[in-house]
Amino acid sequence: MVAVRPGDVEATLSRIDPLRPLLLLFGPDSGLARERARAYLARAAQGSDDPFGIVRLDGDEIAGDPGRLVDEAATLALFGGRRVVSLRVGSRNVAPAVEALLAAPPSGAVVVIEAGDLKRGQGLRALCENSPHALAIACYADTDRDLTRLIDTMTAEAGIAIDRDARAELMGLLGSDRMASRGEIGKLLLYAAGEPRVTLEHVRAIVGDASSLALDEIADGAFAGQPEETAGAFAKATGEGMRADIILGSVCRAAQTLHVMRLGIEAGGSVERAIEGTRPAIHFRRKPLIEKALRGWTAARLETALLALDDALLAARRNATLGPAIAERALLQVAGQARRG
User: Fold this and answer.
1) CATH 1.20.272.10 is right for the domain spanning 210-340
2) pTM for this one?
3) pLDDT tens-digit map of 17-67
4) What class of enzyme is it (predicted)?
5) Which option is the CATH number for 6-138: 3.40.50.300, 3.40.50.620, 2.40.30.110, 3.30.565.10?
6) Is the peptide bond before 280 cis (omega within 30 degrees of 0)?
């Protein structure tokens, strides 16, 4: 079996293996699969003078003509060198085409296949993992270690350092999709271009949605039983022009997330596991408040609070003038209930 272990992925992708001309990239993180495919294809085509050296195929078309994949891989490159084929799987089954290719692997060719999340032991994944002529690499959501390496790599390439507190803030704002994370870091580096270092102010000014951070403060303060902090965050948000019904809608979504997490805890899970298993990852600054909320609320009480917030949301939408007062009262009631336990 040639399923590549996570610790061996970088080393495996750093060289072209002539004995395994087919590379399957699959998993829930399509951005990471895309990034790895591009890098591997570029490495495979390195040194070629053919401007059309990489042949790109559509999976649905190949599914209707399985023999075409074998033909494309076996075709000699127009200007010599290695034949490089990129195949992106669509909604149709390409396993018969890949099976035919693996039965007679082409000499001097590289085929890279991008697929979605594939079940273990089935279809295309099983076919590649069980073949001596293929490599299969799963692309899962970035861990903190992956994000740290990505930040370090991109800042080093840009020739700029990043402050420790800025790094910690940035880590909490990045999600689990590699391409999205790379885009946010790139945007940050462009914003900080010409500066000696990336600072916390740079991160807060440009990465993610600043309004979402303010809304998180309101929800976290309310469910952690902090009425003063909740009122302060609410006043700041409304002072910046945020509508009361938008704020309540965000708090309702936070309540729904807490409710799902609390159900898992009451089914036998732990608070720590519920927090660490949430995707996108919870910002490190929010974790203490969310932990406090999960320990202080039951699923039943969260459901009751959510119904009250829904009623306040409807009332705020019906009366925009009184919306801020309605919203603040509902939020302070939640904070009071959390404080009383």
Assistant:
1) yes
2) 0.57
3) 989 999 999 988 888 899 999 999 999 988 765 666 789 999 999 999 999
4) transferase
5) 3.40.50.300
6) yes
